[in-house]
């Protein structure tokens, strides 16, 4: 799914490593020499303590784990762009601490790069996408997936939740891309943990959208991680949390696809002795205390699942849950009513870590990274559980800081000092596969810039001028000087941007003759459009214009009127411009004359008698379309449909080649209109998910051909 990574000067330790026989040679960010990457986490507070208390007296980890969420800008102080309603926690703005540890990407990465002697350590990121705190509506997933539901809106509306979630993800991915270090992005981590209440279809759709954006933006140093919870107790069957019944099928049902997944991840909070420790206080009257399957069975199943697909596996989260390594005690995780003491520090080590490292080493041909959570959970409000408590709101976690016990720390250091493990300075890398040299990689001697979309944009819709492509001077844009004269946004680019009084965004300023900017568009729908351009200048009209072209073909030349001042804005409309459709098209804005400002360009379909290019064909009337298939609307628009059977459904979706979107009920049919090519065959699937009986209904996937033989009433 991915392109080859070209290593850069700030990453002296990155190159293509040799893969084991069970892993595809093009695996992303695979440690070299068949090693297992050692990662430490999981928050800035924890990692700061380890740096100060242990530092380089033990092997420095080859990577660190941090977490991020997409939060409303009003929740905390942040540095998100003015046109953003969401910010990326831990990255945009000051440190965030929600009673579960402070998160500050800049501090932690700088600290551990310094510990690594100037090398860039790897970064594992848990991206939280749940809204379990808001009745499990799966709104973040639906927004990212672009379902079009009324509460998330359309991707063509820049203020919709869909646009804002996607905008935030694009900024996060560009941050990773520009930083350059190997990143392991755990998208919606622990997808099948009942506490996250992810909907299976929404999760897979959102995951695939993010994976596709990694490719589109050229973030070749970012590997996707699909992480299961390996939680041994089945949850709510309505959310498909039933790993104990048929684990392999369970994981197959949740899998987003080989083209979207780079690594298979798992959690390891209990091992083979789970009944003696984490699950030692079972109570039949409390079914959540009685496991349905062993954690080891789930861990082994995931390793087999990864092996069958040629994917490396990662222990993405791990610690001996319920152990207090400072007090040398343990308790079950559902309560603290049975706290017991270990006989010694070595006994505490033996109770979890011996099995842990043995399992890694027995599966080292597939398990190529492990992330340990080195945290005093009891010091963090979210995880605190009072001694003797009969129940703990978030379970009992304990104190799993290695430095809390000298014997444990020394034993751990001895393990990761072995030749199997990749610590700081070890070679870790390998960019995204999918082209060029057949997977042999790049020697790192060059770093030719590649043009890629800065954010998701399409026609119809508004193109904000500041969202020009990534790629730099001569690739994504041409600017006559190397300085961003406004400097308000994207200060490392030469394009001159400033905050505008026209709206909450930025405008292009300091324009000069011959400059240009390009915008890679996800899609363009064939139609006739009115093109609106927002312009301002105090200078007299004449010899000043903005040109628009699409893939090199001219669309319009817009003369710039005198508006009275640099922030006195006027909309100039070019009516009825016919535009052909397609994907991955490039819009160019060119400057003639200069000395004017540009805010945005908007493409609005002209109301007509059918749309599309050319004269519409009168379709045959009265055809029987049947219950399920593809109907004709015009030569470039087809309608996916399924007959209504009386569902009082919560979610209704029609899927085109696995891309699922909300369906609309019209005249007895659930429908979804999409662009299509006459004579082309497409895979269509219909899904209904409702909480009331009969529950879920699925038709297809089934292949249909788009023609004009069938029209709906």
Automatic annotation (TrEMBL):
Task: Give one GO biological process term.
Answer: substituted mannan metabolic process
Q: Where is the GH26 domain?
A: 31-376
Keyword match Signal: yes
- Biased-composition ranges for Gly residues? 432-442
Single GO MF descriptor: carbohydrate binding
- Could you tell me which InterPro entries the record lists for this protein? Beta-xylanase (IPR021016), Beta-xylanase_CBM31_sf (IPR038560), CBM6 (IPR005084), Cellulose-bd_IV (IPR006584), Galactose-bd-like_sf (IPR008979), GH (IPR017853), GH26_dom (IPR022790), Glyco_hydro_26 (IPR000805)
CBM6 domain location? 475-604
Residues annotated as the enzyme's active site: 190 (proton donor), 317 (nucleophile)
Q: Which Gene3D superfamilies match?
A: Beta-1,3-xylanase, CBM31 domain, Galactose-binding domain-like, Glycosidases
Question: Has keyword Signal?
Answer: yes
Q: Which UniProt keywords apply?
A: Glycosidase, Hydrolase, Signal
Q: Which SUPFAM superfamilies match?
A: (Trans)glycosidases (SSF51445), Galactose-binding domain-like (SSF49785)
Instruction: Show the ranges annotated as biased composition (Polar residues).
Output: 447-459
Q: Which residues constitute the signal peptide according to the record?
A: 1-21
Renumbered residue ranges of the record's region Disordered: 432-459
Similarity-based family: Belongs to the glycosyl hydrolase 26 family.
Name of the featured protein: Family 31 carbohydrate-binding protein
Q: What is the lineage of its organism?
A: Bacteria, Pseudomonadati, Pseudomonadota, Gammaproteobacteria, Cellvibrionales
